[in-house]
Amino acid sequence: MAATEDFLAGVTVLDLSSVGPASRASRILADYGADVVKIGPTRKKGAVQIRPPFHTYGAGRGMRRMRLDLKAPAGVELFLELAAAADVVIESFRPGVVDRLGIGYGVVSAANPRIVYCATTGYGQDGPYAKWAGHDINYLALSGFLACSEPRTDGGPPIPGATVADSAGGGMHAVLSILAALVKRSISGVGAYLDVAATEGVLSLMSLSIDQYLAAGEVAGPRQTLLTGKYAFYDVYETSDGKWVSVGAIEPHFYAELCKRLGLEEYLAHQMTDDKQDEIRAAFREKFKQRTRDDWVAELAPNNACVAPVLTIPELTEYEHLRARGVFMQAEHPESGPFRQVGPILAGGVRRQPTHRVADPEVTETRAILEKRGIAPDRMEELLTSGVIE
């Protein structure tokens, strides 16, 4: 069975990344059926590329790998030949690096005017911070995300529980842009250059709060607005077993259902009464502490009170709804043995998957990739012998 509905069957992607937003993007594209070729450096002259743990980024599911020396003229020439027949190139070097290597957009688009060239960075290709090094937490800091989150006990912003900038601000941002460019190309026949900045992807995610400030002067800090916890009906509460429930009863009829089932009808008329929120929150806390998390979920969630359990990672891997939705699939590593992983679960993906056999990281499919491109056997042997490919 195919990994997905193969919406992107026939689309070839050359991915020069090993980790981060670009690898998130190619993971999604592969799950939608694109032929993703991961191109890493050769081991010649001690060249090293970050090798993430085997289970990350889908454990290489649906991807092929090759090694290519892009510092050798023959390696650059070969890359341009591959790019001439590809649809998408994804890279995550610092600004200017691909141009120094001789594989920047100008050169690649000259060889293939239909190419969609996606450059992913933290801060973008230009601007004062373009060449800054950074990671997820830095992009979340610059975008206002951290400042809107509930502070730690020392008053500082918390460390987020997910790499939002890498995954959504960068990876999904890149995929969305690539797909839009492919649609445009299907009409015009011309590719595009995409400057994907993870920080700007998070700014887009933060637009409700940013636009609220720009238009009305309201600052969406912790406990300052509806979606940052100003009101008691949008919060988390501890239960009798030390676990937690999330409450998001924004609409009045959901809030009314919540109050009635908690036995707190006296607060029905005070959902948005600012000077009542501390009192309502204290009453909610007292009520939720009287029963276990799962008892409250069973009582409130099916009855339109907008309640859900706060699950730990171990809990969610066994949670009935997620298992029923086919979120997880089986995989097997040649040394570590069988394990489960998150499957291709974005809309359109086929949930029932065959077991994914994780490839040996030392093994490449360079020969098969180049044979498909029509590289002559004698030239391939010359490239292998000279160490340009592995």
Mind explaining what this structure looks like?
The chain folds into 2 domains: 12-205 and 342-386, Crotonobetainyl-coa:carnitine coa-transferase, domain 1 (Rossmann fold, 3-Layer(aba) Sandwich), CATH 3.40.50; 226-238 and 244-309, formyl-coa transferase, domain 3 (2-Layer Sandwich), CATH 3.30.1540. Helix content is 37%, strand content 15%. It has helices spanning 20-31, 73-84, 97-101, 105-111, 136-142, 164-188, 198-205, 207-216, 252-262, 277-288, 293-300, 313-316, 320-324, 366-373, 377-386, and strands at 12-15, 35-40, 63-67, 88-91, 116-121, 192-197, 234-238, 244-248, 307-309, 328-333, 337-342, 356-357. The chain has a 6-stranded parallel beta sheet with strand order 3-2-1-4-5-6, sandwiched between helices. It is elongated, with a radius of gyration of 25 Å. The model has no long low-confidence stretch (mean pLDDT 93).
Keywords:
single chain, 390 residues, Rossmann fold, formyl-coa transferase, domain 3, 2 domains
Give a concise summary:
The protein has 390 residues and is of the alpha/beta class. Helices cover 37% and strands 15% of the residues.
Report the order of strands and helices.
Answer: EHEEHEHHEHHEHHEEHHHEHHEEEHH
Distance between the termini: 30 Å
What is the residue-averaged pLDDT?
A: 93
By secondary-structure content and strand pairing, the structural class works out as: alpha/beta
CATH architecture of the largest domain: 3-Layer(aba) Sandwich
Number of contiguous helices: 15
Low-confidence segments, ≥5 residues, pLDDT <50? none
Strand order of the largest sheet: 3-2-1-4-5-6
Q: Mind summarizing the main beta sheet?
A: 6 strands, parallel
